[in-house]
Design a protein that fits this description.
Elements: E1 15-18, E2 23-26, E3 31-36, E4 44-46, E5 57-62, E6 66-73, E7 80-86, E8 89-96, E9 109-128, H1 131-134, E10 139-142, E11 147-152, E12 155-161, E13 166-167, E14 174-181, E15 185-192, H2 205-221, H3 230-242, E16 244-245, E17 250-251, E18 274-275, H4 276-288, H5 292-306, E19 316-317, E20 328-329, E21 343-344, H6 355-369, H7 376-392, H8 411-431, H9 437-455, E22 456-457, E23 462-463, H10 478-481, H11 490-503, E24 504-505, E25 508-509, E26 530-531, H12 532-544, H13 548-559, E27 571-573, E28 578-580, H14 586-600, H15 604-610
Antiparallel strand pairs: 1-2, 2-3, 3-4, 3-5, 5-9, 6-7, 7-8, 8-9, 9-14, 9-15, 10-11, 11-12, 12-15, 13-14, 16-17, 18-19, 20-21, 22-23, 24-25, 26-27, 27-28
The structure holds the ligand OC[C@H]1O[C@H](O[C@H]2O[C@H](CO)[C@@H](O)[C@H](O)[C@H]2O)[C@H](O)[C@@H](O)[C@@H]1O.
The site of the ligand OC[C@H]1O[C@H](O[C@H]2O[C@H](CO)[C@@H](O)[C@H](O)[C@H]2O)[C@H](O)[C@@H](O)[C@@H]1O has 14 residues, from α4.
Keywords: Hydrolase
Pfam family, one: TREH_N
GO molecular function: hydrolase activity
């Protein structure tokens, strides 16, 4: 009984399911501890991840002692198999969320099947539904022999299955205990419904699992990568696809909120939104591996989201393009192992982060280079963005790390402003698109000179985090990757050495220093884990500076940090040997695939072409 009421597992204990509209996290203990319905950014119906049993969960696991658990996705798909070994035998739980396909009028559904592999194993199904991030206990009733309905206000789910649970005396929970014999198969499905009085008809769980498997196999067949580390690259690409909201093409940074960047700390953020930075980099990753459809879908999303006045550009939007992501604290949830606050919404939507202009221009430029035809609307949008950038580029900003401290002239932001004007010039020179190329050339050259004069600090021997400062920032490792300077430029080589000395611990690289009393640049207390994307960027910078074999070895060690099913969180706490931050995170996975492209693909040419 104690286990039933305990808190969530380690972050690395979770596996991801997604139907391309929302996602679930399933623990090694067989418990679905996170699910928001019907969208990634909807309120949760299972939130044990940020609390305990009372915040909602769906457990399906042996009642007795489990002697070992093995887990895997079927091939490169998102059909998850968890095998529990007990003294009485072995059972396999199969979990899947059938993907939404274009135009289908289906609703999100989670399918769970248990198969008896050997012996006779007693299982417990415990179903605790709490809507509104654990705040709303539904009215649960057995409508007929086939289904149970849980309803509270606007939220409703239907549970169907071979062994429906009963209300546990004295608890707001439902349970079924039953034995699964060798060769036996039992199935359940839980579906979101907008019409509790007439929910959609029952489905066949095996068919739904087969459909899910087929979808992911077909999707993987489009990936063109045939280099080394296929498993890691394909799992990362599938994870990025799984974070895509199919109805609009928007991409969430992660499916979770408030998994802490430092265990027990306050650096807890809601990532269930579409950042232009993260989404743009994801687009590049997709496009580099043959997923042009996703690239086009994202470009349409961008055109819709940014439509209107370029001065209104935000750095992030909701997955449907909604602009207001007001941040609030869920004060009734205890947080992941006590890490408070739990936040919903993200105040960063109002920040000025100038790097975003460079990322958008770079992504659309590379898409053109790879044969994605430019559209009139898309080029008009880019010209509008550049017009606005011409007016604001001399302002300080919050930088790519979205600091909550004062605005500064962050070196990385300034480099990315250069990227924006550089790609504009090249659109005219190389692709024949119309525009005021001479003005853009002058701006490009002015920013370049400014960064070399103010971002480079000869005393420190590095490009610093912001003009006039002495602190370092791993984002400066991107300088060769975007073509601002060649990888073998002495200032780049020296910056790599400085980052190595101050921000790198083993293979793990911090974003910047968070030592209290030093910089306070981010305006937050406490420290954080090392940022996995920065760790991959370090490997990229090594490769681009000519140290390829070291880079490959580092890439391999970093890729090995993924959990048993190939997933990466935002950060890694090297001391605790644990994942921290939201999970799985697009930034980390796209850094992995971009590194693979640099190390094992033909993308190196991109950097050559980008040099001035
Ligand atoms: O750590 C402080 C900031 O953390 C979040 O931002 C980070 O995640 C974003 C999404 O992956 C990424 O685009 C950004 O570069 C990261 O710093 C959070 O969203 C911010 O509100 C917070 O200030």
């Amino acid at each position: 009984m104690a286990e039933q009421h305990s808190g969530p597992g380690r972050i690395e204990d979770y596996a991801l399911l997604s139907d391309l509209r929302t996602a679930a996290l399933v623990g090694l203990d067989g418990s679905v501890d996170w699910l928001c319905l019907p969208r990634f950014d909807s309120p949760s119906c299972f939130a044990r991840l940020l609390g305990d049993d009372g915040a909602g969960r769906w457990l399906l696991a042996p009642t007795g002692t489990v002697t070992s658990v093995k887990r895997r996705y079927r091939d490169t798909t998102l059909v998850l198999e968890t095998e529990f070994e007990t003294v009485d035998g072995v059972v396999r739980v199969i979990d899947a969320m059938p993907p939404h396909t274009d135009g289908a009028a289906d609703e999100p559904r989670l399918v769970r099947v248990v198969e008896g592999v050997s012996g006779n194993v007693e299982m417990r199904l415990r179903w605790v539904v709490r809507f509104a991030y654990g705040d709303s206990t539904p009215w649960v009733r057995r409508v007929n022999k086939e289904h149970i309905l849980a309803v509270a206000g606007p939220h409703a789910v239907v549970l169907r299955g071979d062994r429906l649970p009963y209300r546990v005396h004295g608890e707001r929970a439902h349970e079924a205990v039953f034995t699964v014999d060798e060769g036996q198969q039992l199935a359940w499905s839980m579906e979101f419904t907008r019409n509790p009085d007439a929910p959609a008809a029952a489905v066949d769980a095996s068919d739904e699992i087969a459909r899910t498997e087929r979808f992911w196999h077909d999707w993987q067949a489009r990936i063109t990568y045939d280099g080394p580390h296929q498993d890691a690259v394909r799992r990362s690409l599938a994870t990025l696809k799984a974070l895509t909201y199919a109805p609009t093409g928007g991409i969430v940074a992660a499916p979770t909120t408030s998994l802490p960047e430092s265990l027990g700390g306050e650096r807890n953020w809601d990532y269930r939104y579409c950042w232009l930075r993260d989404a743009t980099l994801t687009l590049l990753a997709f496009d580099g591996f043959g997923c042009t459809t996703e690239a086009l879908a994202w470009r349409s999303w961008l055109l819709r989201a940014v439509a209107g006045d370029p001065a209104d550009l935000q750095i992030m939007y909701a997955i449907d393009g909604e602009r207001h992501l007001l941040e609030w604290e869920v004060d009734w949830l205890p947080g992941y192992h006590g890490a408070l606050p739990v936040r919903v919404g993200n105040a960063a939507f109002q920040q000025l982060q100038l790097d975003v202009y460079g990322e958008v221009m770079d992504a659309l430029h590379l898409a053109r280079e790879r044969g994605v035809e430019e559209s009139a609307e898309s080029w008009a949008l880019q010209r509008g963005l550049l017009r606005h950038l011409e007016e604001i580029w001399q302002q300080p900003d919050k930088g790519l790390w979205e600091v909550r401290g004062p605005d500064r002239f962050f070196t990385h932001s300034r480099v990315m402003i250069w990227v924006a004007f550089d790609r504009a010039v090249r659109a005219v020179e190389e692709d024949g698109l119309p525009g005021p190329v001479q003005r853009w050339r002058e701006l490009r050259d002015a920013v370049h000179a400014e960064v070399l004069a103010k971002g480079w600090n000869a005393d420190v021997g590095a490009f610093t985090q912001y003009y006039g400062g002495r602190e370092l920032d791993a984002a400066t490792l991107l300088i060769p990757a975007v073509g601002f300077l060649p990888g073998d430029d002495p200032r780049v080589v020296s910056t790599i050495a400085a980052v190595e000395k101050s921000l790198k611990h083993g293979d793990l690289v911090d974003r910047y220093t968070t030592v209290v009393g030093e910089s306070h640049v981010d305006g937050l207390s406490g420290q954080e884990g090392s940022f996995l994307a920065c760790s991959f960027w370090f490997a990229d910078a090594l490769a681009l500076s000519g140290r390829r074999s070291e880079a490959v070895a580092m890439f391999e060690r970093l890729a090995a940090l993924a959990n048993d099913v190939g997933l990466l969180a935002e950060e890694y706490d090297g001391d605790a040997g644990r994942f921290t931050g939201n999970f799985p995170q697009a930034f980390s996975h796209l850094a992995l695939v971009n590194s693979a492209a640099i190390l094992f693909g033909d993308t190196a040419g991109r950097h050559e072409r980008s040099r001035r």
